[in-house]
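Page 37, top half.
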Amino acid sequence: MTAVRATATLAASDFEELRRVRAESPDSVARALAERPRRALLPDDGRLFIVAADHPARGALAAGRDASAMADRYRLLERIATALDNPAVDGVLGTPDILDDLAVLGRLDNKLAVGSMNRGGLRDSVFEMDDRFTAFDVEGASGLDFAKMLVRVNLEDAATAATLESAAHAVSASARARLPIMIEPFLSRWQDGRITNQLDTESVILAIAIAAGLGNTSAYSWLKLPVVDDMERVMAATTLPTLLLGGDPDGSPDETYASWQRALGLPGIRGLVVGRTLLYPPDGDVEAAVRVAAELVHG
């Protein structure tokens, strides 16, 4: 099986072929990811711009004011494909279903495939802090260029201990496989029945300290951090290479871009990992939003 031809815009025939491959040739799905043309991790400028699309598997389908924006898989794939058409986009962060779709569609050729690993702590569930590893694992990561995991530390929830232990094993396994792993740490707590990530400077610094020590080596560990107040102090807390988390900001796009630009100039920050902000911009122009972010990263 050869990957679907990557046209400038995904067509109905592309999706028809994707459905056919999934139904009639499942072995070729894994081959599409593992055997696609690959690239080096870092481009010449040493910076990365990754589009994130791992939200749905955690039950997070909202973008902006639209509670089900990411529910339509075909629209989501079209938006990701539009982003990947920009040569300054280095890759995609996703769960197996997303990356498999994109690989069969030929959209991950010479792009980084960043595999999201732990998806067990579903949004708004009573077991949200029991964030088991239910997606990619290192043993099955032959088609991945980068791994990613979320590490939420809740000092009032005993489930955090098991999550930290599993996360440490994942860091160690990734290092043995020489697979870079992106750790997204938060200090979190239950608030009115929901998990809330603490985005003050001190909480982010504490989360970094805990996450950086996971595993039996940090040689292949990266961080994925939110942009918060006093990023100079935040980045003074680690020597690990760091990518900025775009999040789902409430402010205007101009304010968001300005905050990214300020942070991108700090030592240790290597680029951006952005999802809904670019894939579902307020004006609907994915191409323009991606272009602005790409210029911020790669200049």
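Page 37, bottom half:
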Amino acid sequence: MYIEKHPKGYRCHVERNGQRKSKIWPTKRQAQDWGRMTEQDLINPPPSPTVGNSHTFGQAVARYADDVSSKKEGQKWERLRLAAALAHFGDVPLSSISQPEIAAWRDARMRSVTGSTVQRERNLLRNMWTLAIKEWHWCEHNPFADVEMPSENEPRTAIWKWQDIRAVLRWLGYQKGVKPVTGYQQVALAFMIGLHTSLRAREVLRVNKDTLNHDTRVIRVKTKTMKVAQVPITKRALKVCVLADFTINSAMLDTLFRKAKRACMIGDFTFHDSRAFALTMLAKRVDLKTLSRISQHRDINMLMRYYRETVEDISRRL
């Protein structure tokens, strides 16, 4: 057992029988008392008939999917990732999965996906384990502790150029100031709204006469992080938002937009990059705090990932 200073007090580390635990306490005395008790528990673990082999990884996946994932917009992605994890680990007891198994899973995933994807999947599984430990009482240890994960991908730098935007809009049949009729034209209008407002694809499709206040130029929609977000828009954005009455869904938007991008031979650009385009343009008009209110970002570092003005453009303004 050893104790070290921490900004919040004192952290006590305990290691016995191959197991490691640590916890932060306000005072050194509390940390010492906890450390002595924890050492005894690790040397002579108390019986736990209700925790351990009685619940499996498959049961945890099923419960998490029903209780947690089902309430999220991204439940489809979470269910797919949980199913993939189940195929990897198998329906084994939760207590049989520890750090070596997690490290093996990490290495297997890194052979086919990026570090950022592994990080997202790690967060999903770690959340499931946290519930299994703290609320369900199905197991006692989190196997992700002390397992090093790959670094996040480098932030994207791609930003739409006007010539590429015009090419995609022409291919989709966009008509300025005219309400869209075809599915392709709806995709074009959605793209224009994204470029002017910084809304994500799902949020763009929620723009209509009920969510748009014409007088105040404010859109009230459910976003990724808020049940009801109020997003202010420019006068120019209002002109395209008033045309919105979407009948397509996000899957159709994604399919048709990809088709248009391939037809126009557009490179490393996505629909989501329209968010970066809008925020980069808006950054020239408002301060950072105002921009974070528009984008609904609480983390300024995350917001900066969407600010993609090139150094050449910046130098021309200096």
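Margin note: The CA atoms of residues 102 and 132 lie 16 Å apart.
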